[in-house]
Each structure stands twice: as structure tokens, then as C-alpha cells.
Specification:
mainly alpha, 10 helices, about 60% helix, about 0% strand, globular
Length: about 190
Amino acid sequence: MSDFHPAEYGPVFAELIDAERLPSLGPGTPDRELRGRLSSLTASEAFAHVPMAEKTYSAACLSGLWLLHDFLEESHTISQQIGNATGSFWHGIMHRREGDFGNSKYWFRRVGHHPVFVALARETTALTRSQNDLPAEAEYLTEQSDWDPYRFVDLCEQFVGSGTQDETFLQHLQMLEWQLLFDDSYRHAVAV
């Protein structure tokens, strides 16, 4: 999401979101310095700058924030309590990152067709068309009309830990996915 600006989500999220960070396709390494700050963060504090409309989605934002900083278990604890497609989406990403690819696909089946998929397919297609050396397995991204979370799980499984430029490119797509889902969660939380 080329126009993702953490400051748009208020001072607390602006402080905690590094839009340039590329989390690992795998579990990553939690930023231990942030654990205390994230542990004490409440939805009321995070959304103090704006009226909250939907607490379920504010929890989704917090789940995403934990995930961004590689605290998979904490993200999981929150996302599994969210009984809607957005909670399942965060849950599916978390399991993909932990390397439980079959469980990730299970949660994406529970997502169904999420509204974020349209923007994710469009923006991914634009990004991939500018790539010179896509792996053959990712060529479908240049022509997709809809996001296929199952194929993306397969790509991540194939390239996680490879240390290749393909893995780095997939990390960029994963960050785009995170940004779009966070933005959607936030907009539902504040009913913008």
C-alpha cells in the first residue's frame, strides 16, 4: 500500500507501526523491547483519539500489531477470540507465519471472500508486473483478478527461509497484505 501512513491511525499506532518493516515469512524474532508497551496497550488507549464504533475490530488491530512485531502467540490469543472473517484472516496469517500451512488454509477457508482481497489482488498485480525475475510459481500474480490466499500460503511455504530475493519480494507482499488488513480493521473499528 504505497500510501500507507501510520500517523493516519492516531498517535499510538503511529508510534508502534514501522511501515518500512518487513516481517519474516516465518515466525521472525519478537522485538522484546516492545513487549511491555504492547502488553499494556488497551483498545481504549489506542483509539483514544477517535470514538470507537466496533470493539471486535479494535481487537483485530491489536492482533495485527502483535503480529507485526513477531509476537505470534499474543496475536493468536486475540485473533482466535474474534468470530468474524477479519479475525479469521489475522488468524490465517499467524498460522502461515508459524509454519502451520494446513491450519493457515483452514482459517482462510473460514475467511471466505474478504473485502481486502480485491485491493490486495489489484495492488499485488501492479507490483508484480514491475518485477523482472518472478519465480514461475508466482507468475499468476501478474494476471490475477482476485486474491488467492491458498496459493500465497503455498508460495510462502516454498520460499520461507530461502534467503532469496523471491523471499524478500514475498515479504513485501505480506507487508502489503498486513497494511490493507490493518487499514480495513481500523476503518471498521472507527466506522470511517
